[in-house]
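ok so i was messing around last nite and threw this chain in just to see what happens. nothing serious, just curious
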Amino acid sequence: MGLSAVTVLGMDRPGVIAAVTGSLADCGANIQDSTMTLLGGHVAMMLLVSGDLSAEELGKHLCGPDLVVTASAVEARRYFRGQSDGLGYVLTVHGPDRPGIISAISAELASVGGNITGMSTRLTGRLYVLIADVELPERVDVAGLMRGLAEVGSGLDSEITFRPVEPDLL
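result:
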């Protein structure tokens, strides 16, 4: 049983997610992980799919006149946040839209070994909003990182907040 990374981009319309996931189910493929969102009137999906079909065969099952589909074989491996020694944080940015926002912020995080594990951005009029899940190494100087992020935010005319993730209670 192989594992494939599948990306799908298409015009947003009712039923597009049902059509894609239904096609996968019809050919016996199992969606192990996925993320789906709307980007400027388009639905964007990224899925890790297991099954007996090759990545090439999966791509053929998902082809449609209004979809751009890619499928690639990937190695099977799992990452569970609970097993990490890192510290979880949420970073938010509010400010005017301009080129280089994500680049500047991700470079500051990377400089201390920080990893963005999830991110969403939206442009509403002239207001740019970024929300990111960040994992930091356990021994990072968080106060120093926050000063660096404040400097980056100042240079972007943006407000940056950085707070620890609230632990989930089950």
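not much to say yet. DSSP finds four helices and eight strands in the chain.
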